[in-house]
Amino acid sequence: MSKISFFIKSKNIKLAFYFKFMAKQKKEKGKASILNANSLSFLTKYINNPSPTGFEWEGQKIWLNYIKPYIDTHFVDNYGTTVGVINPDAPYKVVIEAHADEISWFVHYITKDGFIYLKRNGGSDHQIAPSKRVNIHTDKGIVKAVFGWPAIHVRDAAKEEVPSLKNIFLDCGCTSDKEVEELGVHVGCVITYEDEFMVLNDRYYVGRALDNRIGGFMIAEVARLLKESKTKLPFGLYIVNSVQEEVGLRGAEMITNRIKPNVAIVTDVTHCTQTPMMSKVVSGDIACGKGPVLTYGPAVHNNLLKLIIDSAKKNKIDFQRAAVSRATGTDTDAFAYSNGGVVSSLISLPLRYMHTTVESVHKDDVENVIKLIFESVKAVKNNQDFRYIK
């Protein structure tokens, strides 16, 4: 076993012991968690695995292997969207959905002296890049690199440059373009950050790509709860982990035309507005730890939203409200406006520091989103007619 493999294994063992200990502590305090050690081990592995937009398949394999015991069958489309199905022969179809891809970078230009300039793959934030460590994914394996940046000592304070796509660059320790290419790096190679999953103050899950692999985790846990509670659904349930949301909801657009669902409940993250430099006037008053966020907007079907709100109240799940003026900016829009109109709604998870490597979500919110999707699915009736006018 290599030193790196040993380190990763040791780290995962420590996290597994931590999760078991915390589950026991919660139980003793009378606040039993719906998550178990196996769930949280899956979460750690799933978050740590890179799944950049257009290259999601390794993460999809992890996700599918986890949910297989809880579903009847599954299928995967040409671009990698992965779907677990319960009751595949039922004509009435309900979707619960998240997206699997993470923002990343592409190698765009390699200079003669071996530095690398980039293009975005999704909404990657150029301002957080300097001094970050990255993995360049090549056919020869991972190549390590860093985002270089001039030292504070040599920068001209009067002409201070801010990071932009014109000046951020990667250094992989090479002195020429040929040396870079010998490592297997070429234009089009995808790049992800190294940062990994951690738990902050026993309160927050922190890591890169919680937007929105935490959503994939939550819908997988709904499938587990349905199986373990022996819930019998009268309709077909499609647990959908879509690709390419970060570049325009593309995976959802493709898969909704294949499934042709009657109902879609989508989960994604939304901005917590309680941290410095956030505007509640612009982004609403949303807080981590205060429950799922339910969105009002044209794509959100009000009768389905009412069913979700009633489920929250009935099961004493705290929730928050948000409004959008046009689009939700999530896969909800892709489902809602497909196939002549699919009854759709959005259950969001408050998140701090979106599109950074330290995205943070409150543990209680994660559990409550899972509970709310679970209870809402159970509340949907077979062949339920959600039309406003009948």
Q: Could you explain the architecture of this structure?
A:
- There is one protein chain.
- By secondary structure, this protein is an alpha+beta fold.
- The protein has two domains: 241 residues, Zn peptidases (Aminopeptidase); 90 residues, Elongation Factor Tu (Ef-tu), domain 3.
- It is 32% helix and 24% strand.
- It has ten helices and 17 strands.
- The strands form three sheets. Strands 1-2-12-3-13-16-14-15 form an eight-stranded mixed beta sheet, sandwiched between helices. It has a six-stranded antiparallel barrel with strand order 4-5-8-7-6-9. A three-stranded antiparallel beta sheet has the order 10-11-17.
- Strand 6 and strand 7 form a beta hairpin.
- Helix 8 packs across helix 10.
- The longest helix has 26 residues.
- The protein is globular and about 65 Å long.
- The N and C termini lie far apart (65 Å).
- The N terminus is likely disordered.
Topology:
Blueprint: H1 3-28, H2 37-48, H3 57-67, E1 73-76, E2 82-86, E3 93-99, E4 104-110, E5 115-121, E6 133-138, E7 141-148, E8 169-171, H4 177-182, E9 190-193, E10 198-200, E11 204-207, H5 210-228, E12 236-242, H6 250-259, E13 263-271, H7 280-283, E14 293-296, H8 302-314, E15 320-323, H9 331-336, E16 343-351, E17 359-362, H10 363-379
